[in-house]
Amino acid sequence: MLNSINLKIPQCSPEDLNRITNKKIVNLKECKLEIVINSKELHKYKRNTNTYIENSFVYFARVGNKFDGNSLIEEILNSNNYIASTKKNLLLFATKNKMSEETINNILSHEYFLLVDNIEESINKILEIVFKIDSNKFNTIAVTGTNGKTSTVQICSQIYENITQKDSLRIGTLGLQIKDKVIESSHVTTPDYPTFLQILNYCNSSDINQIIMETTSHGLSENRIGKWLVDIAIFTNLTQDHLDYHGTMESYRNAKLKLFKSNLKQNGCAIFCLNNSEWDFFCDAAKSPSRTAIGIGEANQGLVFFNKYSSQYKNIFFIEIKESKSNLLGNFASIIFKNPQTIIKEFEVKTPLIGQFQLYNILCSVAAMIYQEFEIKTICECLFNLKNIPGRLEVVKNSEKETHKQPTVIIDYAHSPDALEKAIQVCSQILRAEGRGNLVTVFGCGGDRDKSKRPLMGHIAAELSDRVIVTSDNPRNEDPDSIIDEIFSGINTNTENCIREKDRRKAIELAINSSTEFDIVLVAGKGHEDYQIIGDKKFPFSDPQIALSILKKEKC
């Protein structure tokens, strides 16, 4: 169980507010004001149900899909607390609610009303003012890609902390983490810029200067890391996902390219996996005569990489996978680190993390650590002791006796076509190496998300698995049966070995209990998640815990 860390609410002075408003605040009060950007937090400042404590906060009136912060203007002004808004947003609210011209003028002239050009930029600016964060104190590694972000962040963190014996901050799908502690904050993978600044402020006061973060396409599109510049940007891969949000693959790719175009330091390092067709877009986006580039892939890819980009970067290197193998004991590979002129170092990678595609995430992390000037030998020693990443090709182990008669159960977060295909290929490779056993894949697709990937995932699962059980994932506000129907619309072969079981627990139970000791059961889609979203509610649900309970033959 992770311990939690609460971020402090930032405070500012009226003098600080003068630096963000178009209107000079004349009657400055000697006080510290807490900065409030979420209307749900306002109850903390009330003396009772109706009255706010005077001069206790400044509220920034954001306009969202469901709530307009301008609805609180008169209430807050009457309590002698500051509120910031734009003239455009105020007038739109006033027109919609038929406010008189006199009321509007009274608001605009009120000593506690702050007129700003842009509400989000003003929030960012006031936080930058009060936190006074020096970006040069931090070293930031940012990872983007459809898959592999979480693994790469976690692996980088493990290596860094093992070598330096210092803490790092991890930001991503598994939360905002420092060692065994989680920061109570945003639930999204890439937090918004105000939250990000609060996190940086906490790190600054805690003497933590290594930040390793996932940067999602949503986060980059919405400018959630603001103008923060990273030292190392990593691209893992790009395959179909999130088209419900981006619309097209080009738009999706362009969102991720922003990390390399706008948020990478001019003297920073760009790291690219070359085992996909999109890598050169990212190399083009990052190219600069003052930057370093490191590519990862096979020997023939290295030749293309050097020929095309050697003149585009200050320094360029390639990590070549000479040979590799993967099984249930982990990954083993012979690696060459080189530049266009010579081989710099040959070394071996041995790690308990399974899966061929995981090897690329490991080598991305190795590249980042090499750029940070850690010795390759020392880095490789850390790889041997890497801990499993929750929900990423996680083998569920039953420690009780007679377990040899049970199938191997693997949990993976795969929830896109490419990720599911890769997870299935890992399991199939293991079975081929053993020379026996079948693969049973259990998966579903999330509701209120990209519908176009559902038949694709159905087709992939049916083509590459011996048996498939299609079930619910997080149905949210969609009918689970309709989601399953859409998945089945892509299944045109192996139909007799594909069944549907809407209840996810029953589906996992059916897969395990109908399999032999030589089989692998892959439970895909939810990975580390410990909940299931049905409607607008979250219910406790953990694939690893449920699988272990079934293996132990525990009663529900």
Account of the 3D structure:
The chain is α/β, with parallel strands linked by helices and 556 residues long. Helices cover 35% and strands 24% of the residues. The chain contains 19 helices and 25 strands. Strands 1-10-9-8-11-7-12-13-14-15-16-17 form a twelve-stranded mixed sheet, with helices on both faces. The chain has a six-stranded mixed sheet with strand order 18-19-23-20-21-22, with helices on both faces. A hairpin with a 2-residue loop joins strand 9 (175-178) and strand 10.
The Rg value, from CA coordinates, equals: 26 Å
Q: What is the mean predicted local confidence, pLDDT?
A: 92
| Order of adjacent strands in the largest pleated sheet | 1-10-9-8-11-7-12-13-14-15-16-17
| Low-pLDDT sequence parts | none
Helix count from the secondary structure assignment? 19
Overall strand count? 25
The description of the largest β-sheet is: 12 strands, mixed
Fraction of residues in H or I helices: 25-40%
Give the percentage of residues in beta strands: 15-25%
Structural class: alpha/beta
Approximate shape: globular
Distance between the termini: 22 Å
Ordered list of secondary-structure elements with their pairings:
Blueprint: E1 3-6, E2 11-12, H1 14-17, E3 33-36, E4 57-60, H2 73-78, E5 82-85, H3 87-96, H4 101-109, E6 113-115, H5 119-131, E7 139-144, H6 149-164, E8 169-172, E9 175-178, E10 181-184, H7 193-205, E11 210-214, H8 217-221, E12 230-235, H9 243-246, H10 249-262, E13 264-273, H11 279-286, E14 288-297, H12 299-309, E15 313-327, E16 330-338, E17 343-351, H13 356-371, H14 376-383, E18 394-396, E19 408-412, H15 417-434, E20 439-443, H16 453-464, E21 467-470, H17 480-488, E22 498-500, H18 504-513, E23 520-524, E24 531-534, E25 537-540, H19 543-551
Parallel strand pairs: 1-10, 3-4, 4-5, 5-6, 7-11, 7-12, 8-11, 12-13, 13-14, 14-15, 19-23, 20-21, 20-23, 21-22
Antiparallel strand pairs: 2-3, 8-9, 9-10, 15-16, 16-17, 18-19, 24-25
